[in-house]
UniProtKB/TrEMBL annotation:
<dbReference type="Pfam" id="PF01556">
    <property type="entry name" value="DnaJ_C"/>
</dbReference>
<comment type="function">
    <text>Functions as part of axonemal radial spoke complexes that play an important part in the motility of sperm and cilia.</text>
</comment>
<dbReference type="InterPro" id="IPR008971">
    <property type="entry name" value="HSP40/DnaJ_pept-bd"/>
</dbReference>
<dbReference type="InterPro" id="IPR051339">
    <property type="entry name" value="DnaJ_subfamily_B"/>
</dbReference>
<keyword id="KW-0969">Cilium</keyword>
<keyword id="KW-0966">Cell projection</keyword>
<dbReference type="Pfam" id="PF00226">
    <property type="entry name" value="DnaJ"/>
</dbReference>
<keyword id="KW-0970">Cilium biogenesis/degradation</keyword>
<dbReference type="GO" id="GO:0005829">
    <property type="term" value="C:cytosol"/>
</dbReference>
<comment type="subunit">
    <text>Homodimer. Component of the axonemal radial spoke complex 1 (RS1), at least composed of spoke head proteins RSPH1, RSPH3, RSPH9 and the cilia-specific component RSPH4A or sperm-specific component RSPH6A, spoke stalk proteins RSPH14, DNAJB13, DYDC1, ROPN1L and NME5, and the anchor protein IQUB. Interacts with SUN5. Interacts with IQUB.</text>
</comment>
<keyword id="KW-0282">Flagellum</keyword>
<dbReference type="GO" id="GO:0006457">
    <property type="term" value="P:protein folding"/>
</dbReference>
<dbReference type="GO" id="GO:0036126">
    <property type="term" value="C:sperm flagellum"/>
</dbReference>
<dbReference type="GO" id="GO:0051082">
    <property type="term" value="F:unfolded protein binding"/>
</dbReference>
<protein>
    <recommendedName>
        <fullName>DnaJ homolog subfamily B member 13</fullName>
    </recommendedName>
</protein>
<dbReference type="GO" id="GO:0007017">
    <property type="term" value="P:microtubule-based process"/>
</dbReference>
<dbReference type="InterPro" id="IPR036869">
    <property type="entry name" value="J_dom_sf"/>
</dbReference>
């Protein structure tokens, strides 16, 4: 059956490019199988795609206007191609959805399109409905104190649903997200990857949010930008003085003399030996040394007497 592309688009042969586009827009929306379930709509939608594919291309249109469908699809001698005619044999790709997407733009042609000519009912999407973003997907990011002291890069593989080119089906794809951990980040720091969640036909992908969770450390307890170190000492050391050796997170050994009498609430503050500040890594918090005084389990009568004499 010989096709009349102009008749298919319900326009005359003198139609301008703008009129061709307007006609295709109106009819493609009207006969799209997702909005029109009447018999024959699928064939009609395919015919509209082929008609627009030809008439929207100047070379194909010139060949069709001069030689008809037979010349367009059968090919014409090269010498007739001087006036812009299509000299190769034309074969429609057979995917009207592809033509539709290329016309409206984007992977999902229904997502942001609205017209007063034809009510949209695609997949339940109503006229004027604004796409909403899915709720954020939150995941814990467990980091060691060393990671947060020095900074590091963490690479995390996620699996997300991606819409295929047809705009209707989807598939699962893996993606690597890279997180550049800055020195001094605190517990609860949120790292947001915008719109990296699952894709859907009528929604905006969710943000993926990683929340920093600090692992425990065998030597230090973190308190904001300060590091707390607990030293175990004897009663004798608490009363007579001593020094504490502390290995820092960057591998240095600090020797800190304690000349004061040490009681259970005593703290020694070493300035600038804590965690780096996230806003300025050259600045640091403090190292705070607390003490766990080990009292003797028992004392002989002689030692008790000596202690009484020493404390008088």
């Amino acid at each position: 059956m010989v096709k009349d592309y102009y008749e298919t688009l319900e326009i005359n042969r003198n139609a301008t490019d703008a009129e061709i586009k307007k006609a295709y827009r109106r009819l493609a929306l009207k006969f799209h199988p997702s909005s029109n379930r009447e018999p024959g709509c699928t064939d009609k939608f395919s015919q509209l795609g082929e008609a627009y594919d030809v008439l929207s291309d100047p070379q194909k249109k010139a060949t069709y206007d001069k030689f008809g469908e037979e010349g367009l699809k059968g090919g014409i001698p090269p010498e007739f191609g001087r006036d812009g005619a299509w000299s190769s044999k034309y074969v429609y790709h057979g995917n009207p959805d592809k033509t539709f997407r290329q016309f409206f733009g984007g992977d999902n042609p229904f997502a942001d399109f609205y017209t007063n000519d034809v009510p949209l009912q695609f997949g339940g999407l109503q006229p004027g409905v604004v796409k909403t973003q899915d709720s954020p997907i939150e995941r814990d990011l467990h980091l060691s104190l060393d990671d947060l002291f020095h900074g590091c890069t963490k690479k995390i593989k996620i699996s997300r649903r991606i819409m295929n080119e047809d705009g209707y089906t989807s598939s699962i794809k893996d993606k690597i997200l890279s997180i550049n951990v800055k020195p001094g980040w605190k517990e609860g720091t949120r790292i947001i990857f915008s719109k990296e969640g699952d894709q859907g036909p009528n929604s905006i992908p969710a943000d993926i949010v990683f929340i920093v969770r600090q692992k425990s450390h065998p030597m230090f307890v973190r308190q904001l930008n300060d590091l707390i170190y607990k030293a175990q000492i004897s009663l004798e050391m608490a009363l007579t003085g001593f020094s504490v050796d502390v290995e820092t997170l960057d591998g240095r050994l600090l020797n800190i003399p304690i000349s004061d009498l040490v009681h259970p609430t005593y703290k020694k503050v070493v300035t600038g030996e804590g965690m780096p500040l996230s806003q300025d890594a050259s600045q640091r918090g403090n190292l705070i040394i607390t003490f766990d005084i080990q009292f003797p389990d028992k004392l002989s009568a002689e030692r008790k007497h000596l202690i009484k004499q020493a404390l008088k």
